[in-house]
# Entry
Amino acid sequence: MRLGPSLHRIGNDLVAVYLVDTPDGITLIDAGLAGQWRELTAELTAMGRSIDDVRGVVLTHGDTDHIGFAERLRRDHGVPVYVHEADAARARGEESTKPEWGRMKLGATARFLWYALTHGGVRTTHLGDVVTVRDGDVLDLPGAPRIIGMPGHSPGSIAIHVPAADAVFVGDALTTRHVLTGAAGPQPAPFTDDPAGALASLGRLEGLEAAWVLPGHGTPWNRGVAEAVREVTRAAAASDS
# Structure
C-alpha cells in the first residue's frame, strides 16, 4: 500500500511494516511476522524494486511481532538490522518479558492470535546479530532516520523520525487499534512492560513536525503528532476513571 511519495506499508491494522523509498534505496521500519515475507517481495516488485534495494531494517523494539523476517534479510541478503541497545538482547532471543494482557474482547483477541498464527508468529527466528542504536542517532540509511528513545513498552522502544517521508514511526509506543479489544483511535498499546513510562515517553514527541504517525498496529494516522498524543493521553485517562 502506498501512503505517500516515499512511504509504503505492508500488512494491515493487526501487524504493519513500513517502507521508506528514496533514490538511495529503501529503509524498512520493523519486520512484522515471518509470514509477511511474500507481501514484502510483492510490494517491492510493485514499486519496481527488489530485496537488493533494501539498505537496512530499523526495529522499533525487539518483540517477536516486529522482528519476523529481519533475520532472513540479515542472514540471506546481508541487510543490517538496527535496534536500540536496551532491546538488543530481546531481539536476539536472550531475554523475554511477560507483560499483563489487560482488557480483552474475545473476537478481537481471537482475530489477532489467528492472524499471528497463520503468518508465522510461532516461527519467529531471533536475530543472530544486530547493530545497536541510541537516542539521538541519525542513521546512514535512506531517509536519514533519527532515533527517539521511547522507553515504556519495552526498555529499548524507539520512535523513528523520517522527515523525507513526513512521518514518525512509533512501533508500540501507542496504537491506533487495540489488538485485544478492537477499539479504534490513538490509545496506549497492550503488552506494555511499563504503562506509566510509555505514557510519559510520549512527551519526547512534543514539537515534532510530521503529518504521519505510524504505529506497528492500527490504522495509519495523518492528523499530526500533537493530536495523536492528545488522543492517547485522553484515552489513558478515560481507562483509569
Remarks:
- Helices lie at 37-46, 70-77, 88-91, 106-118, 195-201, 225-240.
- The CA atoms of residues 110 and 180 lie 8 Å apart.
